[in-house]
Amino acid sequence: MKLIDVIKVASKSLSSNKLRSMLTMLGIIIGVAAVIIMIAVSSGTEAAIADQINSLGANLVFVMSSFSQGGARGGMSASTGGLVYSDAEAIAGNVPHVAGVAVEQTTTQTVKYGSIVLEDVSILGTTPDFPTVREIVIEEGRFINEQELERSTRTAILGATMAKELFGDTYPVGQKITVGPLKLTVVGVLEEKGLVSGVDYDSRIYVPITLVFDKLMDSQFSRIAGDRVRIIYVTVDNKEFIDDVILQINLLLSKRHDVPLETPDFQISTQQDIIQTQSATTESFRLLLAWVAGVSLIVGGIGIMNIMLVSVTERTREIGIRQAVGATPQDIRLQFLTEALILSLIGGLIGVVLGITGAWVFSRFGDMPTVVYPLSIVLAFGSAAAVGILFGYLPANQAAKLDPIVALRHE
């Protein structure tokens, strides 16, 4: 038989049992749609994380303490075990292509305004370059200036959420709040930033880092830690120079901390390093989701196989008649394989449409971003076709092996 004739016969057979054909395709439809939606959700999540990280500053280099136990000579250098504020000043003054440097040191304090009392509020000590380096916008007032940093002036900048919790609709700039034992004057309010990598930038209070060192650290901790900082942010003026800047920072801090380059007491990373780490996590999650969705395809394939086996039994007499008028076992096998393949392809097409629609619905009406990759559509549709051939072969082969005489006698 010609291929076109085989397709016509298979299509006629399937159209004569529309409900059964639709139920047979259901597993394939669900499997294909699930693969596309799950990959779209995980890919969208990965893209959203990357956007959040990139939104916190362009061309950023992160310098963090690694808390090693000694310098190159095994002794305790002045900064062993962490970064100090003067390290940031040294980077800003000695490393070329640095556009800005900011530091962080955090503490928690009770914050009061009038009758409002907030416990365990995150107080972030930082420097004037912080908004530029971290791409944070000032909505009202201004940020810390150099003079306030040098004099440990009692000023504060509020995150958007913190401003609402303390002042409501009252204009906060110029108001005084109590932070721990200190009275601070609010000089600015930041634009809403949101939750990024588990950090709520809007629920913080920002103050000069020198004020944290002098007044807001526990006295015992201050004696031990001195002017240590949690992290130094360095923004590079051109992305092309990031590797050079990292090398220069390594050389500078290794010399300052008296530690070898091979075993420094600090760590340096970039936004891309963080994004790659996040991507590795989401990639594993995406593979897991794809395998879970793939199970639906296998279940759909088993459904096709079962229905086709039933179909072979029901159509035994038809198979015998076809064999009696000249159909070869190969013709019979090809017809049933074609039926299984048609079911899989139509189910795959419906699944693709439902998958793309479902991903759009998740993105449009939910909090879950989605990104539909063409490769996921090809993968899902190809898998559906493969499942149809794989699970359709056994029934097709069984039909091809029927004895014509026995088949004709079948009632």
Describe this protein's structure:
There is one protein chain. With 411 residues, this protein is α+β, with helices and mostly antiparallel strands. The chain has a domain at 3-52 and 276-409. Helix content is 57%, strand content 19%. It is built from 14 helices and 14 strands. The strands form three sheets. Strands 3-4-11-6-8-7 form a six-stranded mixed barrel. The protein is elongated. The model is unreliable at 68-80 and 220-224 (pLDDT under 50).
Strand content range: 15-25%
- Main sheet summary: 6 strands, mixed, barrel
- Terminal CA distance reads 27 Å
- pLDDT average, as an integer? 80
Helix/strand/pairing category:
alpha+beta
Order of helices and strands: HHEEHEEHEHEHEEEEEHHEEHEHHHHH
The number of distinct helices, counting runs of at least 4 residues, comes to 14
Helix content: 55-70%
What is the strand arrangement across the widest sheet?
3-4-11-6-8-7
Radius of gyration: 34 Å
Compact description:
The protein has 411 residues and is an alpha+beta fold. Helix content is 57%, strand content 19%. The chain has a domain at 3-52 and 276-409.
Question: Which helices and strands appear, and what pairs or packs with what?
Answer:
Blueprint: H1 3-15, H2 18-55, E1 60-65, E2 83-84, H3 85-94, E3 98-113, E4 116-126, H4 130-133, E5 138-141, H5 146-151, E6 155-158, H6 160-167, E7 176-179, E8 182-190, E9 195-196, E10 199-200, E11 205-208, H7 209-216, H8 219-225, E12 228-229, E13 231-236, H9 242-257, E14 266-270, H10 271-314, H11 316-324, H12 329-365, H13 374-400, H14 404-409
Parallel strand pairs: 4-11, 6-8
Antiparallel strand pairs: 1-13, 1-14, 2-12, 3-4, 3-7, 3-13, 5-8, 6-11, 7-8, 9-10
Helix pairs in contact: 1-12, 2-10, 2-12, 2-13, 3-9, 10-12, 10-13, 12-13
